TrEMBL record:
UniProt-recorded name of the protein: SDR family NAD(P)-dependent oxidoreductase
Gene Ontology biological process terms, A to Z: fatty acid biosynthetic process
Keyword Manganese part of the UniProt annotation: no
Annotated spans, N-terminal hotdog fold: 277-412
Positions of transmembrane segments: none
UniProt cross-references to SUPFAM superfamilies, sorted A to Z: NAD(P)-binding Rossmann-fold domains
Coiled coil: none
Gene3D superfamilies reported for this sequence: NAD(P)-binding Rossmann-like Domain (3.40.50.720), Polyketide synthase dehydratase (3.10.129.110)
Domain PKS/mFAS DH: 277-574
Taxon lineage: Bacteria, Bacillati, Cyanobacteriota, Cyanophyceae, Nostocales
Active site: 315 (proton acceptor), 491 (proton donor)
Gene Ontology MF terms in the entry: fatty acid synthase activity
Length: 576
């Protein structure tokens, strides 16, 4: 299969929107690496260049000549009239330059002037060129329009203009070409479809449909190499210095043309044939949503099953799958962030495990997350009271978890952990999987949570561990995905107290109350991070500790302060 999916000299690509702009640059780069055949589609006509415009390359000089020509013909030139002719000349020039660059790379190219939303014309013209070039083996769908406006100001015409070029255009291309013969389907989507963006609801909808179409096509035609590329902003003519400045203020990196076009070539390598969707570019950091003064309440319902959350099989206590407290916290945090896009979780206080959720006969038909706004300041913060509850068949309410969550419009700078100590004392020599499922005194966690790699040092009041969480699949994460807050790395950090208790007191524990948590940076996946666990108090029935998650340089990712754990009989935890 791999051999057939390699782009080769007999490959024939149809490229919508491929004669101008970034799509044209991508096509030229692809031709330089794989000199095959390209059919470029665009709405513009190639018009003969007027005699007066020849060898006139400066914009101002060209506009002057257009005006002079109109006057010589007895016309009264208007700015709009001059701009229209100027655009036509420049458009034809750019198309010719694209064709010349592709041919200079040793590839063949032909341009078709057609609107991809015109079903009959598209089918007819593609058929005619395919007779000459051979079977079409690939589609690069780069056509698109913009009509950026706030949703209340958008017209149905705006929506149709944006939506049809992307969605109807793709459908028409697929209807014009036998999908069985397609080896490559590349859809130019956008980070707007993935993250959303103000003023681009129609563009986000259209691009997200492209994303889902890629997954669907791959499912139906697994022999094809299919990818929807969610591009970020390009460093091209469309991105003005003012727009670059606005992007920089929002922390958005611009994609250099040379790097972005090479990324397209890389994505078509057979090694990536099973990646149906990729995001190229930095996340869209939304400005904080404007707040209304009244304090609102929100209610979210969720049905939870083991089948939807496979990671739970790695969190089995006394023979039953138990929802980690950090996952309940994560549900609360992500829900609060989603209510007001642009605000990010900073801290969570008074987090309590009231009655855990166990996936056995006690599992409720549904769980309800109740969120009540406590206070807020526009652009600054919102504080919520969050509770997870369920009702039994008799209608009695059971409260499972509660917390006060704060989200902010601007994150503070991450502090440095001044008491960091990464010196190795070689007192605890167990490493990696040796900490887990290795007798009554070992940690009970399965593979998704077995990510403490080693203990650096331990004494009567502190333990420092190295962790490295290997990211599990989205399917395994189920209803508790990693976003800004990562419930899995948070859970792993609390395991350090278990190791300390077992080493110093031959006891084990379960979390009772996480009291106060805060986050400044995302905890890294697939690379080491460190947890410094400071023991504040130890009694016969429990322990209180601080967990600081930090980098090797001491920059704090997140921390849990004053966490309370309950001492638990060892044999009860690992009982099957």
């Amino acid at each position: 299969m791999t051999a057939t999916l390699q782009v080769n000299p007999s490959s024939v690509f149809v490229v919508s929107g491929g004669a101008k702009g970034i799509t044209a640059q991508c096509t030229i780069k692809l031709a330089q690496h794989h000199p095959c055949k390209f059919i470029l589609l665009g709405r513009s006509e190639i018009t003969p260049e007027p005699e007066y415009a020849r060898d006139c390359l400066e914009d101002a000089a060209l506009k002057k000549r257009i005006m002079e020509n109109l006057i010589s013909q007895g016309e009264k030139p208007t700015p709009m009239m001059v701009q229209k002719i100027f655009n036509e000349i420049n458009s034809s020039r750019e198309i010719k330059q694209t064709l010349a660059a592709i041919q200079a790379a040793g590839a063949k190219a032909e341009y078709i002037s057609v609107d991809v939303t015109d079903t009959l014309a598209l089918k007819e013209k593609l058929h005619a060129v395919a007779q000459k070039f051979g079977h079409i083996t690939g589609i690069i769908h780069g056509a698109g329009n913009l009509a950026d406006k706030l949703i209340e100001k958008k017209t149905s015409e705006d929506f149709e203009k944006v939506y049809t070029a992307k969605v109807q255009g793709l459908q028409n291309l697929l209807n014009s070409i036998n999908p069985q013969q397609l080896q490559h389907l590349v859809l130019f989507s956008s980070v707007t479809g993935f993250y959303g963006n103000i003023g681009q609801s129609d563009y986000a909808i259209a691009n997200e449909i492209l994303n889902k179409s890629a997954h669907q096509f791959k499912k139906n035609y697994p022999q094809s190499h299919v990818v929807a590329i969610n591009w970020g902003g390009w460093d091209s003519g469309m991105v003005t210095p003012q727009l670059k400045k606005a992007f920089a203020e929002r922390g958005i990196d611009i994609i250099p043309v040379e790097i972005g076009t090479q990324m397209l070539v890389n994505e078509l390598h057979p090694a990536y044939q099973n990646s149906s969707q990729v995001v190229i570019g930095s996340p869209m950091n939304l400005p904080p949503t404007p707040l209304e003064p009244e304090l609102k309440s929100h209610r979210i319902r969720r049905r939870m099953t083991l089948a939807e959350n496979p990671f739970l099989y790695d969190h089995t206590i006394a023979g039953a799958q138990v929802l980690p407290a950090t996952c309940a916290m994560s549900w609360m945090i992500h829900a609060c962030e989603e209510i007001y896009p642009g605000y990010r979780y900073l801290n969570c206080r008074e987090f309590k495990v009231l009655k855990g959720i166990t996936f056995n006969a006690t599992l409720a038909d549904e769980y309800i997350l109740e969120i009540q706004e406590l206070s807020k300041a526009n652009g600054e913060y919102i504080e919520f009271q969050a509770k997870i509850l369920s009702k039994n068949p008799q209608g009695k309410t059971h409260y499972h978890f509660s917390a006060i969550v704060k989200v902010v419009g601007k994150m503070p700078e991450a502090p440095i952990y001044e008491a960091m100590n990464l010196v190795e004392d070689n007192i605890i020599t167990t490493t990696g999987k040796g900490f887990y499922q290795n007798g009554d005194s070992s940690l009970f966690h399965g593979p998704a949570f077995q990510e403490i790699t080693r203990v650096l040092n331990v004494n009567s009041h502190k333990i420092t561990v190295e962790c490295c969480w290997q990211e599990i699949s989205a399917q395994q994460q189920g209803q508790f995905p990693v976003k800004w807050h990562n419930p899995y790395t948070t859970d792993i950090s609390t395991q350090s107290l278990w190791i300390w208790l077992n080493h110093c007191h031959q006891e084990v524990c379960l979390p009772g109350q996480l009291t106060y948590s805060e986050q400044f940076l995302a905890v890294p996946c697939n690379s080491p991070f460190y947890v410094s666990c400071e023991i504040e108090n130890k009694t016969d029935t429990g322990a209180t500790a601080n967990f600081i998650l930090h980098s090797r340089e001491g920059r704090i990712y997140s921390r849990i302060l004053g966490a309370k754990a309950v001492i638990w009989p060892m044999k009860m935890l690992n009982k099957k």
